[in-house]
Specification:
- This protein is mainly beta.
- 12% of the residues lie in helices and 66% in strands.
- It contains 2 helices and 13 strands, in the order αββββββββαβββββ.
- The protein has helices spanning 2-15, 146-157; strands spanning 21-35, 38-42, 45-52, 56-68, 73-90, 99-118, 121-139, 142-145, 165-177, 181-190, 195-199, 202-206, 209-219.
- An 8-stranded antiparallel barrel has the order 1-4-5-6-7-9-10-13.
């Protein structure tokens, strides 16, 4: 799946070298993000370790290039810093009551097909690759981040279960006002797990990034 998405992204970027009208832009906005449950599996049995307990507010900021190939179709690669994560809790049926906010910050690169059914209105769809830059857990007024974050899980699982790459599918709506001002809403559907570990026939995986974004941009 990862190789297929990378090939698709490269192919679409190559297509952008054809004759096209090019616009550059900058954008920023808010995120509402959540993480999927982490489930452990052993001998065919599945059990939730961490469960989703709410959304986390964050922000995103970055830039984009829009290649227009005509009235109805285009391509929009972007480069964004995105603060993501979610609120999680340990399974209350097995563990003591414990909730935590998990922050996972990424540099995201979406490569989006720009479908323009109406003037100034776009539907954007495509893949996104993310590179994890920072992670932390906050609970009870205490925060653990960086190498301490990894060490805590290494003590429990023997190695860090966190992935540096993230893949998502993006669907978005975008409208342009007064030629340069854009507003947009999008949903990033997580395709890969940020947390994954396997050892001695048992495995645990989850924390797919699901992110709703509202943004304002300006084209040049």
């Amino acid at each position: 799946m990862k190789k297929i998405l990378l090939i698709m992204m490269v192919a679409m970027l190559c297509a952008a070298t054809a004759n096209a009208q090019i616009k550059f832009g900058a954008k920023a906005g808010v995120n509402l993000s959540s993480l999927s449950d982490v489930k452990a599996e052993e001998a065919g049995a599945s059990l939730s370790i961490f469960e989703s307990d709410g959304m986390l507010a964050g922000f995103h900021v970055g830039g984009f290039v829009n290649f227009s190939f005509g009235q109805y179709i285009g391509l929009q690669p972007e480069l964004l810093f995105s603060m993501q994560g979610g609120t999680q809790k340990l399974n209350p049926h097995i563990y003591d009551d414990f909730a935590m906010d998990i922050t996972l910050d990424y540099i995201n690169i979406p490569i989006l097909v720009d479908i323009k059914p109406f003037a100034n209105f776009s539907v954007l769809v495509g893949p996104q690759i993310g590179f994890n830059m920072y992670k932390s857990i906050s609970s009870g007024g205490e925060t653990m981040s960086g190498s301490d974050f990894d060490k805590a899980f290494e003590e429990e699982f023997g190695k860090s279960p966190f992935k540096s790459l993230d893949f998502a599918a993006v669907i978005a709506l975008q409208y342009t006002f007064i030629e340069h001002l854009t507003v947009g809403a999008r949903y990033n559907i997580g395709l890969t797990n940020a947390f994954s570990i396997s050892e001695s026939g048992a495995s645990a995986k989850g924390w797919k990034n699901n992110v709703f974004q509202l943004s304002v941009g300006w084209t040049f």
